[in-house]
Each structure stands twice: as structure tokens, then as C-alpha cells.
Write a structure and sequence with these properties.
alpha/beta; seven-stranded mixed sheet; six-stranded parallel sheet; 10 helices; about 30% helix
């Protein structure tokens, strides 16, 4: 097969489309012919040499894919050769084939194009696990998501609205704010021009946000705590603004608030399987009913992964950037 390899860490040009060994499905795994994958910030970090795959995972980037099952490994039930699926991966999505634990497979939702299905697994699993399974966002609560126009953000807006929450977002341009409004965001905050703490307080009669989903990290830590409501929950899923910050425990105590931090890639297989099962139960019906949809900025040939990384690093996109494998006719 061919895959995007990283002979040496570096800029986007470090991504090389080259021949690679075919993966072999092990116990409890299936072999998927990849039709498409999606670009995530973790892929950029891996390319730069800062985020190596977990032990035993594929060395190639790509944390999600869509495609067709080519073969079943030992002890796999419930799936058949030819099934159209999308999958959560620990790596290997930027390739023509990938071996996937069966517990991380999802059927392609009805009404979703097979190529576009690659836009769903990582964001659906990240948002559902953090916002709902851990932070327990409830109807009528106020939810703030930073980076509302990102892949994570566009999914978070839709899912929060679907459960009856009020949604605030931050984004960096009027165009991105408008796209978030189209998805259902109620409170639109231009982080370049406005203070999100003040805006959240003003729009909640001083109460603050009940749940905040944050991919910035240290840079926003203190202000996120300020923006929390009493009994608020801050879920940190990224470190784009640094890894080390000062946490005001007094403010947390006063608000009886909670801070959690999670990643998805390195979790044990059983934890990933539980998250995927929850997404299939709770999110997939919303997708099939058209309440939630994948938001795709553009699709590029997988061999042009370098250009896809440039797009992601420019932050000019809204939603997901996809990579179409040769099997998709790209």
C-alpha cells in the first residue's frame, strides 16, 4: 500500500506519500480499505516530532478514517467484509489500508457520504466524552466552546443545541462567527476584539458558563475559571496556548467548580470502545435525523497531505479538512 510517512520531523514538506507494508489485522481487529481520513491538530504535532503514536499503534498519522472492511481478524463478530464504516484510530489514517480494533468501528450514518464520514469519529468521540460523559451538560445550561469554527467546535455547537443547551462560542473573524451562528450558536464572541469572560457574564446575567470546552490550555486557564458559573465544569482538551498555567484554587472552591483534562488517543482500548458505543447510541441517531451533520471545509487528495496541514495551520478553515485516498477517486 501507500501511506503518508514522516522520514524526518519538520514542516508540512516532511509528509511523504510512499510505499509502506500492508497492515495485518490482529485479534479483535479488522482491516479497512481507507477511502478518506481527516486532519487533526495531533497530526501536526506528530509531524513536528512532538506527539508520537502510542506503543503498538501505526507510525503513520491519522486519527480517524472512513472506508470499507477488507478482512476480519480472529475473534471479530458483528461486522462483515464490505461493510462501510468510519473509525477512531490511534494512528494510520493517512494510508490506503489500516487495521482497526473492532470496538472503534462505527457504521457510516444513513445520509452521510462515505468520504465525509471521516469527519465524524474524532470530533464526535471527543465532544461526547468530554461535554456529556464527563461534564454532564444538561438542557437549559450555558455552554462555552473555544474555537467554535474548528472541527471540534462545529460538532460541539450542534450537539449542545440538540440537548437544549445555550451555546456561546469564541472565534477570530466575523465570517467564522457567522458560520457558528448558522450552526445554532447563541452568543458570538470575537476573541480578537472582545473579552470572553465579560461577554459570557453579560449574556448570563452574571452567572457564567456551566460547561466550558477548551483547547487553548494555559493561556486561558485563569479566565476560564473566571467565566465559570457556580458548580461549573471546565474540560481541557488541548494545549495550543501552553501546558503550564496558574490555577486559582480559591476561585474553584468558591464556585464549587471542577477542572478536567483528557486526551483520547492514548486511552485503553476498552475506554475507547465505551466512548464509541456511547457515540453510536446517542450521536448517530442525531446525525441520521439531520439534526447534527459533519462540517467539511475542503477535501484534498491524500498525497497532498502537506497542503492540508498548511490549511489547518493557517486556521483559515471552518470545520474539518479531509484527505481522500485513491480509492475515493481523488
Amino acid at each position: 500500500m501507500y501511506a503518508i510517512t514522516i522520514p524526518e520531523p519538520g514542516g508540512p514538506e516532511a509528509l511523504v506519500w510512499a510505499e509502506a507494508p500492508d497492515p495485518v489485522p490482529g485479534d479483535g481487529e479488522v482491516l479497512v480499505e481507507v477511502v478518506s481520513s481527516a486532519v487533526n491538530r495531533a497530526d501536526v504535532l506528530q509531524r513536528q516530532g512532538f506527539y508520537n503514536p502510542p506503543p503498538g499503534a501505526s507510525p503513520y498519522p491519522g486519527l480517524e478514517c472512513a472506508g470499507r472492511i477488507l478482512a476480519l481478524g480472529p475473534d471479530v463478530t458483528g461486522w462483515a467484509v464490505g461493510d462501510e464504516v468510519c473509525a477512531l484510530l490511534a494512528g494510520g489514517g493517512y494510508a490506503e489500508k489500516v487495521a482497526v480494533p473492532a470496538g472503534q468501528l462505527l457504521p457510516v450514518p444513513k445520509g452521510v457520504d462515505l468520504v465525509e464520514a471521516a469527519a465524524l469519529p474524532e470530533v464526535a468521540c471527543t465532544v461526547w466524552s468530554n461535554v456529556f460523559m464527563i461534564s454532564h451538560l444538561r438542557p437549559g445550561e450555558t455552554f462555552l466552546v473555544h474555537g467554535g469554527s474548528s472541527g471540534i467546535g462545529t460538532m460541539a455547537i450542534q450537539l449542545a443545541k440538540a440537548v437544549g443547551a445555550r451555546v456561546a462560542i469564541t472565534a477570530g473573524s466575523p465570517e467564522k462567527l457567522a458560520r457558528c451562528a448558522e450552526l445554532g450558536a447563541d452568543i458570538l464572541i470575537d476573541y480578537r476584539e472582545q473579552d470572553f469572560v465579560e461577554e459570557v457574564r453579560e449574556n448570563t446575567a452574571g452567572a457564567g458558563a456551566d460547561v466550558i470546552l477548551d483547547l487553548i490550555g494555559a493561556k486561558y486557564l485563569d479566565r476560564n475559571v473566571q467565566a465559570l458559573a457556580v458548580n461549573g465544569r471546565l474540560a481541557i482538551i488541548g494545549l495550543q496556548g501552553g501546558a503550564k498555567g496558574e490555577l486559582n484554587l480559591g476561585a474553584l472552591l468558591t464556585k464549587r467548580a471542577a477542572v478536567t483534562a483528557t486526551s483520547l488517543r492514548g486511552r485503553p482500548l476498552q475506554e475507547k470502545a465505551a466512548i464509541v458505543a456511547a457515540v453510536r447510541e446517542h450521536v448517530w441517531p442525531l446525525v441520521e435525523d439531520g439534526v447534527v451533520r459533519p462540517v467539511v471545509d475542503r477535501t484534498l487528495p491524500m498525497a497532498d497531505a502537506a497542503e492540508a496541514h498548511r490549511v489547518l495551520e493557517s486556521s483559515a478553515h471552518v470545520g474539518k479538512v479531509l484527505l481522500a485516498a485513491p480509492s475515493a477517486g481523488a
